[in-house]
Amino acid sequence: MWRVIMLSVVLMTLVFVMMGIRILIKKNGKFPNTHIGGNKAMAERGIQCATTQDKMARKRVIPVKPMILDEEHESNTTSC
Asked: Are 22 and 30 in contact (CB under 8 A)?
């Protein structure tokens, strides 16, 4: 069991070292942007991340005012 764990640790270390070397050697090397917002193909199709889509949808919502029945009583419901 310890051999498997040690082998896994050695292999993961090797992978991270090789990724680091690739980034250092490559001209303008940097980690790839794996976020949906950074993907050009998705942007061309109009697809954005869920957080951005949620913010945009919330901006489009029309604020709703509470209904006033008369001066003394107010309703807990909202008007459309």
From this structure: no
